[in-house]
Amino acid sequence: MKAKTALLLAFLVLLCSCGKAGERNITETQKGEYAGESSSGVWISYSEINSMLASSDGFDFELEKAVDNCRSLKIQNVYIHVRAYCDSLFESEYFPLTDKAEGYDCDIFEKITTAFHDAGIKVHAWINPYRVLTSSSDIEKVNHGSLAYKWLKDDDPENDLNVCFADGIYLNPAEDGVRRLVIDGIREIIDRYDVDGIHFDDYFYPTTSSDFDRESYEKYKAAAENPLSLGDWRRSNVNALISGCYSAIKYKDADILFSVSPAASIEKNYGEYYADIREWVKNGYVDYLIPQLYFGFKYPDSKYRFQNLLEEWKALLSENRDIGLLIGLASYKIGDDGEYDREEWQNDTDIISREAEICREDDTVLGYVIFSYKSLFSNAALNSEQRENLLKILNSEEV
């Protein structure tokens, strides 16, 4: 009975979300706010924020420098990592405070939001919805204030289903309690902070192994008359979260944008991460997508070359013009010694600028977001050259 109730609730959430999608017009809410300009953004990860918090120059100095750096490259949006591992950059009712933020007598996220807003830069709260720990499967290494830890340590065996293991520790996408936790955390952010958006990246199911959520799936099958396959069931769980988050955000404020940054391969998202991007586009579960096209122009497998991937995503998004498309670019690969494409990233000085220019000139693409802050503004010689070439593109288009 409990499983049937969960499925009914998920269906109602999806139905609610579909209705709202029909009322939205991304051309007005997103393209309009940039007044015809191509949008630009940068991800600032939890590790980069932690480095700022631990800097000998002080957090205020590092934050001011980050704002100045972003203005120098005409960045319009920052994606601030407020929840990387079931924790929180601010004092939260639902999640323990990030270690590096402890001891500060101010609200770090409020300070970041104010600083960027004062500079005319929009702020999006970036969340990993399911990740708890990736370095270990030892629950004792999880912050004891985390609900994941409490669920496993309390006397209620039903709560154990909320947490799964796969070379790490993750919240279980199948469980109602997990969806409530994630959505409550989002409501807390938009109730307390003047954010312009809520953002997820590509961390959904961490494995294709059936062992990951076997007990939840067996319970589901026992209660369902015509049970879905494991893959379809997992995709339906992620869909329920994505649509539920969208509905919760829009209920609070229709102007707050909800975005997801999927992996580059549409098929890999579907088959390995159980993120059914086509379903999200069809039903309007997001305001815009930022696929991570973290490849250059010479990748050995041609299907992963930047322009070929871009065409695939443009074709997909053409099915629903109410959803915007921005492109994730990979400054972190500058100078990279990866096995497959090291030569391009170690030698070429204009990969990011060429990709940004393609995005800016394409009327069907809203712009680009770069991963991530540290590599984009690195003083290493090759990074500096790539950055200067990007600035040339930005300045030349203003003439």
Describe the structure.
Strand 2, helix 5 and strand 3 form a beta-alpha-beta unit. It contains 17 helices and eleven strands. By secondary structure, it is α/β, with parallel strands linked by helices. The strands form two sheets. The chain has an eight-stranded parallel β-barrel with strand order 1-2-3-7-8-9-10-11, surrounded by six helices. Strands 4-6-5 form a three-stranded antiparallel sheet, with helices on one face. Helix 1 crosses helix 10, helix 8 runs parallel beside helix 10 and helix 15 runs parallel beside helix 17. The protein has a single domain, classed as TIM Barrel (Alpha-Beta Barrel), CATH 3.20.20.
Please tag this protein with its features.
three-stranded antiparallel β-sheet; eight-stranded parallel beta barrel; 13% strand; 399 residues; 17 helices; TIM Barrel; disordered N terminus
Structural class: alpha/beta
Q: How many H/I helical runs?
A: 17
Provide the β-strand percentage band: 5-15%
Distance between the termini: 65 Å
According to CATH, what is the class?
Alpha Beta
Give the strand order, joined by hyphens, for the main sheet: 1-2-3-7-8-9-10-11
Q: What is the assigned CATH homologous superfamily? A: Glycosidases
| Shape verdict | globular
Q: Report Rg.
A: 21 Å
* Number of E-type strands: 11
- Low-pLDDT runs of 5+ residues are 1-36
| CATH arch. level architecture | Alpha-Beta Barrel
